[in-house]
């Protein structure tokens, strides 16, 4: 079996990611939140220590957590390093220590 | 009508919701029903998968970044089948990867890397050989490992037990991780996504430890591979499960 850690930690991580994904709107109303909570509640009560369904659910939750987290991190890296596009003329001038001239009357 | 999507598009909908139709679960963007790139109605067989896809669409901010919506992409591939492959062709493509499976392809030097490969990859090969009762082995030769026909046949008949949707997902994960064995390890829940990605990138991780990590390249690739492998694995599990909660009788 995969080394998954504690289900509570996975759940907390998942809820944090869902909160990020909703950003602004209440995340408790989203279908994803309700589905995750319902699934965790349904599998909480079990007399078996090695309940297979429980482990399957935990693996699924951990996989979904990995997906949400990796997409968010990838996007953040993309914005930081690859999303800037071209520099403006002012920035290019600034690279070599110049400033664009100010022309109060406009160009030409 | 456009058959290709631009990489980004402004978000044009307020609300995302799910509904159940004849063919399965559908995604609604406001009042419009989501369609595939080939203009088919977007339906998925699993409610959990529909919820996850809806979450992808709902978490887009000002612009829709299609390249981050891996589950949606996988569903589109399953629905449209743009490469027009049937089940047999998909399975053959998947099993063919075994001949160049990353964890069977070993170096001889540097010695530290060769040892790392033995320590990290041998247990997974052993697990697969045990689990599927096959011989796989590993090789340092340039032609790769010599996979017996019986091993390939075992994997072919095992993969045949999955439905078409799940197979698309399995083939996707194999292509991303460059390893059939690591992908089966994920599908069988033997290893986590993070571990599978680490093992797939073992040589890169070794070089990173020696020479340092370049965030805008290494971490960027790492996050993207994790996202894709996670999406593929989740897709396979959600397409091949039948979720029934068995209520055990309370015994006094």
From TrEMBL, chain A:
* GO cellular component term of the entry, any: mitochondrion
What does the protein in this record do? Plays a role in the assembly/stability of the mitochondrial membrane ATP synthase (F(1)F(0) ATP synthase or Complex V).
The UniProt family comment states: Belongs to the FMC1 family.
Name assigned to this protein:
Protein FMC1 homolog
What is the organism of origin for this protein?
A: Eudromia elegans (Elegant crested-tinamou)
From TrEMBL, chain B:
As for subcellular location, the record says: Mitochondrion inner membrane
Q: Which GO terms describe its biological process?
A: mitochondrial proton-transporting ATP synthase complex assembly
How does the protein's chain sit in the membrane according to the entry?
Peripheral membrane protein
UniProt keyword list: Chaperone, Membrane, Mitochondrion, Mitochondrion inner membrane, Transit peptide
Keyword Mitochondrion in the entry? The reply is: yes
Q: Provide the primary localization.
A: mitochondrion
Domain of life according to the entry: Eukaryota
A single GO cellular-component term on record = mitochondrial inner membrane
Give the PANTHER family listed for this entry: ATP SYNTHASE MITOCHONDRIAL F1 COMPLEX ASSEMBLY FACTOR 2, ATP SYNTHASE MITOCHONDRIAL F1 COMPLEX ASSEMBLY FACTOR 2/ATP12 PROTEIN, MITOCHONDRIAL PRECURSOR
Per its database record, what is this protein's job?
Plays a role in the assembly of the F1 component of the mitochondrial ATP synthase (ATPase).
State the family it belongs to. Answer: Belongs to the ATP12 family.
Instruction: State whether it acts alone or in a complex, and with which partners, per the record.
Output: Interacts with ATP5F1B; involved in the assembly of the F1 component of the mitochondrial ATP synthase (ATPase). Interacts with FMC1.
* Name under which the protein is recorded: ATP synthase mitochondrial F1 complex assembly factor 2
Q: Which organism is it from?
A: Eudromia elegans (Elegant crested-tinamou)
Name the gene for this chain: Atpaf2
């Amino acid at each position: 079996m995969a080394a998954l850690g504690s289900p509570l930690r996975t759940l907390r991580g998942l809820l944090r990611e869902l909160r990020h994904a909703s950003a602004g709107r209440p995340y408790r109303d989203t279908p994803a939140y309700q589905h995750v909570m319902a699934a965790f509640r349904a599998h909480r009560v079990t007399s078996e220590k090695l309940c297979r369904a429980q482990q399957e659910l935990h693996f699924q939750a951990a996989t979904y957590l990995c997906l949400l987290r990796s997409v968010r991190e990838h996007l953040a890296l993309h914005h930081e390093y690859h999303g800037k596009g071209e520099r403006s003329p002012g920035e290019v001038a600034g690279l070599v220590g110049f400033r664009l001239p100010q022309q109060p009357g406009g160009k030409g | 009508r456009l058959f290709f999507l631009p990489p980004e598009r402004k978000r044009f909908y307020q609300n995302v919701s799910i509904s159940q139709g004849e063919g399965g679960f559908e995604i609604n963007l406001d009042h419009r029903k989501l369609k595939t790139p080939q203009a088919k109605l977007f339906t998925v067989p699993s409610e959990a998968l529909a919820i996850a896809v809806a979450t992808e669409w709902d978490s887009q901010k000002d612009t829709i970044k299609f390249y981050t919506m891996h589950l949606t992409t996988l569903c589109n591939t399953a629905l449209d089948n743009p490469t027009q492959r049937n089940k047999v062709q998909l399975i053959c493509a998947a099993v063919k990867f075994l001949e160049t499976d990353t964890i069977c392809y070993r170096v001889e030097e540097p010695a530290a890397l060769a040892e790392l490969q033995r320590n990290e990859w041998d247990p997974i090969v052993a697990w697969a050989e045990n689990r599927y009762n096959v011989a796989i082995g590993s090789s340092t030769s340039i032609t790769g490992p010599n996979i017996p026909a019986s091993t390939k046949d075992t994997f072919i008949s095992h993969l045949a037990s999955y439905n078409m949707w799940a197979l698309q997902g399995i083939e996707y994960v194999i292509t991303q991780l460059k390893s059939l064995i690591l992908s089966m390890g994920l599908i069988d829940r033997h290893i986590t996504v993070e571990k599978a990605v680490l093992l797939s990138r073992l040589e890169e991780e070794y070089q990173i430890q020696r020479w340092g990590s370049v965030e805008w390249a290494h971490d960027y690739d790492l996050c993207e591979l994790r996202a894709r492998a996670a999406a593929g694995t989740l897709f396979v599990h959600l397409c091949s499960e039948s979720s029934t909660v068995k209520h055990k009788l309370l015994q006094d």
